[in-house]
Specification:
Layout: E1 22-25, H1 32-40, E2 45-46, H2 53-61, H3 80-101, E3 106-110, H4 118-124, E4 129-134, H5 137-147, H6 157-177, E5 182-186, H7 187-192, H8 194-205, H9 216-223, E6 228-229, E7 233-234, H10 243-250, H11 253-269, E8 290-291, H12 292-299, H13 337-352, H14 355-369
Helix pairs in contact: 5-6, 5-10, 5-11, 6-11, 6-12
Organism: Capillimicrobium parvum
Protein name: Sulfotransferase
Keywords: Transferase
C-alpha cells in the first residue's frame, strides 16, 4: 500500500470532463457494494443503498401492462425532452436531499441492473459519469450460486455465468460508446491495492483525496442503521484480501467447467486467466484503472466477442408491454417446505452432473416449459 502522501500513477486515465452524479455499475457479485461503501465514506460523496430507480423511470415512460401506455404524456403535448426534464428534476431532488442531509455535495447511485439503462441515464443526466467494476468470473459466479442457493434459477451456475457474460458485455459496449464518461476497475486490484486504486478513481472523478475511503468500515459502522446491506455485505468489515481466492475453495468442478467453457474469453478481455484467481494482465499499462477509450481500442482485438452488439436486456429492464408480458399469480407452492426440499435435492444432484449433462437437463426443462 502506498503512503499517505502517495499520488495516483502517471499512467491513469485523464480526469473525466463531467462532474455530475456517479453511477456504479457491474455484474452482481462483482464488488459494487464494497465500492459504494468506500465512495460513500468520502466527505463529498453520498451513495445510498441501491434503488433500482430506473425501472420506475421505465414505468413513467410506459405505463406498465397498459396497451396505450407508451405515449400517454406525448398525447398530452409533452415532448420527450420536456418529460425527461421533469423526471430529472424529480430524481435529482430525491438524491440531492439525501446528499445534503449527510453533509455531502455530490450524489451517486449503485444498482447492478442499471447496466441496462445507461442510455436513459446518460440522457437524463448529461453530466453523469459511470464507474464499472469487474471481478474474476469464477469469483462472481461462485458468489451468486451461494447467494441464490435457494432459487432454482438464479442459483444455477449456467444462469449466473450468463448473467456475468451479458452484463460485462454490455458494460464494454457502453464504455466504447461513451469513452469519456466511463472508467473501469477490478475488484482484485481494489482489494489488494485499495489506496492506489482509490487515488486514481478520485482523481478521475475530480475529487480530493480522503483517508476516509480506506476506513469505510469505521465510517459506515458509526452511522449505520443496519449492519448488513445489499449483497449480504457487512458495513463494518474492512477490505478482506482473502476474498480474492476464497471462491477457489468452494466452487465445485461442474461449475468451474461452466466458467471455463462460457467465460474464458470475456475473462481474457478484462485481463484474467480463467483458471487463476489473480489478474494475469493490467487493465492499462502503468495504471490500475481503464478508461472508456482503452475499452474501445481493446474491443477491436476481440472481434469474436461481438462487443459492439447489444445483448437483449432481461425482461424486468424493459417496458411492460401487455402484448409481450402478462401477469400471473405467484405460485405459493414453491414456498412450501416439501417443494423447497425437493428442489434443493434436485439442485444437489445437478451440481454433481458433468457440465454437458447439466446443459442437456436444462435444455429439456426449457423445452417442456414452452
Amino acid at each position: 500500500m502506498q503512503g499517505a502522501d502517495a499520488s495516483p500513477s502517471a499512467g491513469g486515465p485523464a480526469p473525466a470532463p463531467f462532474h455530475g452524479p456517479i453511477f456504479i455499475l457491474g455484474a452482481m457479485g462483482s464488488g459494487t457494494t464494497l465500492l459504494r461503501l468506500m465512495l460513500d465514506s468520502h466527505e463529498r460523496i453520498a451513495i445510498p443503498h441501491e434503488t433500482g430507480f430506473m425501472r420506475a423511470y421505465n414505468a413513467q415512460r410506459y405505463i406498465p401492462l397498459k396497451f396505450s401506455g407508451a405515449n400517454w404524456a406525448t398525447r398530452m403535448g409533452w415532448s420527450r425532452d420536456e418529460f425527461d426534464a421533469l423526471c430529472r428534476d424529480f430524481y435529482d431532488t430525491i438524491f440531492t436531499r439525501y446528499a445534503t442531509e449527510h453533509g455531502k455535495a455530490r450524489w451517486g447511485e449503485k444498482t447492478p441492473l442499471h447496466t441496462w439503462h445507461v442510455d436513459h441515464i446518460a440522457r437524463l443526466f448529461p453530466d453523469a459519469v459511470f464507474v464499472a467494476i469487474v471481478r474474476h468470473p469464477g469469483a462472481s459466479v461462485a458468489s451468486n450460486v451461494r447467494r441464490f442457493a435457494q432459487n432454482p434459477k438464479w442459483g444455477s451456475a449456467n444462469w449466473t455465468a450468463n448473467q456475468y457474460l451479458r452484463n460485462n458485455h454490455e458494460l464494454a459496449r457502453q464504455a466504447a460508446r461513451r469513452p469519456r464518461r466511463f472508467v473501469f476497475l477490478r475488484y482484485e486490484d481494489l482489494v489488494r491495492q485499495p489506496e492506489p486504486v482509490m487515488r486514481e478513481l478520485l482523481q478521475w472523478l475530480g475529487e480530493p483525496w480522503s483517508d476516509s475511503v480506506l476506513e469505510h468500515h469505521a465510517v459506515q459502522a458509526s452511522r449505520a442503521t443496519q449492519v448488513q446491506v445489499e449483497g449480504r455485505t457487512r458495513v463494518d468489515e474492512p477490505v478482506d484480501v482473502s476474498r480474492i481466492t476464497r471462491w477457489t475453495k468452494t466452487i465445485d468442478e461442474p461449475t468451474r467447467e461452466i466458467v471455463r467453457t462460457q467465460l474464458s474469453r470475456i475473462a481474457t478481455f478484462y485481463g484474467y486467466d480463467v483458471d487463476q484467481p489473480l489478474p494475469a494482465r493490467p487493465l492499462r499499462k502503468g495504471a490500475l484503472l481503464m478508461s472508456g477509450m482503452d475499452v474501445r481500442r481493446r474491443i477491436d482485438r476481440f472481434p469474436d466477442l461481438g462487443l459492439r452488439t447489444r445483448p437483449e436486456p432481461g425482461l424486468p429492464e424493459l417496458p411492460f408491454n401487455p402484448r409481450k408480458v402478462k401477469l400471473v399469480p405467484y405460485d405459493t407452492a414453491i414456498a412450501q417446505p416439501s417443494v423447497g426440499f425437493a428442489r434443493r435435492v434436485a439442485r444437489a444432484v445437478m451440481r454433481r452432473l458433468p457440465a454437458r449433462a447439466q446443459a442437456t437437463v436444462l435444455g429439456v426443462r426449457r423445452r417442456s416449459r414452452r
